[in-house]
Amino acid sequence: MELTGLNADQAPPISAPLRFFLTAPLFAIFAGFLIFISDASVLTSRFAPESIAIAHALTIGFLGFVMLGAMTQMLPVLAGVKIYKVKFITTFAHTLLVVGLISMVFGLYFSKQTLNSLALISLSIGFLSILFPMLFALRKVENRSPSVKAITVSLSFAIAVVLMGADLLSAYATGSFSDYHSIIANVHSVWGVFGFAGVLIIGVAFQVLPMFYVAPRFKQFCKRKVVILISVGLILWLVFNLFVPQIAYLAKIWVALFFWAFATTVWLKLNNRRRPISDVTVWYWRASTIFMTLGLFSWVFNSMINDQHIVVVSIVIGGGFILSIMMGMLYKIVPFLVWFHLNAKGYMNIPTMNEMIDKRSAKIQFVFFILSLIGFTLSYFEPSFLEYSAFLFIISMTILEYNIINPVLIYLRTIKTKPDFDMSAFTMESK
Amino acid sequence: MSSIKEYLTNDHRRCDELFAAMEDAANTSLESAREMTQSFIDASEHHFQMEERVMFAEFEQKTGMTEGPTAMMRHEHMQMRNLMKQMMEALEVNNKDKFFGFSETLMILMQQHNMKEEQMLYTMAQQHLSAESERIIEMMDSMITE
Q: CA-nearest residue of chain A to B76?
């Protein structure tokens, strides 16, 4: 068994996860601006290049970045493994992903084939250059806990999603669309949301909820089987879409059922948690379970009306379920990382986690976010709401960036001073 | 008889329960949380010593690894002891914000630490010390906190 995760010197440098975390809200703000300047009628179509551009500014730019950052930090803790040359790989992948995503968004939004080609290359290499080393690192784990298994499954789906995404993007780069384009798009999006993000969230929740909130543990059945059952549903979604699209909704119901069960379980576990505190992260968990439930039901019912409201379903699931959880996590992980790294460097007199992020400003950010989400949902039916909602969203993401940059500034300010264990402070002054 | 891994993992959960009870009391008033805070700190100290004086010592002797994972875990114990001390100081001056700031930091540090132990170190200890696990658990069980 590898024990590098237990060695402070080999824990990932603080810059590895932080570069992803700090970039994420910036892409969300960018997406907010694009929504603000877009025509509401265009965005109601899922296949409009503008919609795809905005969706990816959020899914890759926010969700993808937060998940990659979190995994660089979590693999050593949850699995005891170290990513090979983590500093180099995270810097390399991050740079390519930023360049690739900006190219993709502009390429799609303004129909520029050259930018789409650049995006295709940068995003593919960027993603694969970090996903494969993570998957490779996990191979060495001997004690494969349910969380480790879930992360492995999630990374495998992520790789498939990236490959499908590359194929889809190549159509925009070359201008030739295959007959399978919309089928691949269907599988790409569902696997991205439920396979990559959803399974990762479930795997992490097995550990995080009982431990951080002192909530009841998940049942063994849940921990052992739910990821497999969801994976079967997702593979059926692929098979049905390819060969018997008329019954693809069955796979959808299957996947939705298990995520709904998960949402309900999380809600109940939060109710029964022993830790009384209710901070913004608990609010985000709660919001996430509500939106997940609403989103899943509307996703299934939407099948009965020919999938005509898929955009609004995506807002509820992507924004309400996944974005919420990611933001809740950022509020815990960023100040902790700062505290942890400063402490490891010998600084003892550090602001506490609660002093690093202003609680009130985190709550204001939450309220703005939820209002923007409700606004986006309504603006699907009443387009005049769109600009206001985009504005609320931009404000919320700007506050988020401010909230998580604050601890990082504290970090930078502190390391300019001497660590507290510097014994010169204890030398007697001669009078 | 349970395994070393089960025994120590259950003790983690016991400390978690005490931590939750402590925060619950502190939510009402810091004055009323004094006793709960002390029981949490005592339980944690007992847990640290069961590891440091018994299990880690046996593990280090058996494997010869003194600078490896156990050294890292000892270091984290020290970090946690420090936070507990700061929590007590906040309690003395009746500063609720500080108290919860430290308890929040401690909670995350503690859980991250517990995950590493439960996922890796205890499993390793179980592999290396399985023959003596009964004796080691008995020693931990009867140990008196110094």
A: A344
Name the residue among B17, B97, B123 with its Cβ closest to that of A274: B17
Chain B interface mutation, best of A75, A81, A143, A331, highest count of B Cβ atoms under 10 Å: A143
Domain around A108: 1-143
Structural domain count, chain A: 3
The verdict on residue A282 lying in a domain is no
Q: Are residues A218 and A178 in the same domain?
A: yes
Contact (CB<8Å) A275/B23:
yes
List pLDDT tens digits, range B79-112. 999 999 999 999 999 999 899 999 989 998 899 8
User: What percentage of chain B carries pLDDT values higher than 70?
Assistant: 99
Distance from CA of B51 to the nearest CA of A (A): 16
What is the rounded distance in angstroms from the CA atom of residue A27 to the CA atom of residue A122?
17
pLDDT digits 0-9 by tens, A323-372 = 999 999 999 999 989 988 888 888 878 888 888 999 999 999 999 999 99
Number of domains in chain B: 1
A121 and A201 co-located in one domain: no
Residue type, B132: E
Domain end marker among A242, A276, A310: A276
Mean pLDDT of all residues in A412-428:
65
Statement to judge: residues A120 and A199 lie in one domain: no
Question: Do A36 and A59 reside in the same domain of the chain?
Answer: yes
Q: What percent of chain A has pLDDT over 90?
A: 71
Distance from CA of B43 to the nearest CA of A (A): 16
Side chain identity, residue A304: M
- pLDDT of residue A420 exceeding 80, the answer is no
- CATH code, B136: 1.20.120
Task: Give residue A2's pLDDT.
Answer: 41
Taking the C-alpha atoms of residue A149 and residue A199, their distance in angstroms, rounded to an integer, is 10
The token pair that represents A103 in the structure block = 């190219």
Sorted by sequence, the CB contacts under 8 Å of residue A170 that are 6+ apart come out as: A120
Any domain includes A372: yes
**Cβ contact (<8 Å) for A78 and B115?**
yes
Say whether both A232 and A315 belong to one domain.
Answer: no
Query: How high does pLDDT run on average in chain A?
Result: 90
Coil, strand, or helix at residue A273?
A: coil
Say how far apart CA B105 and CA B90 lie, in whole Å.
Answer: 14
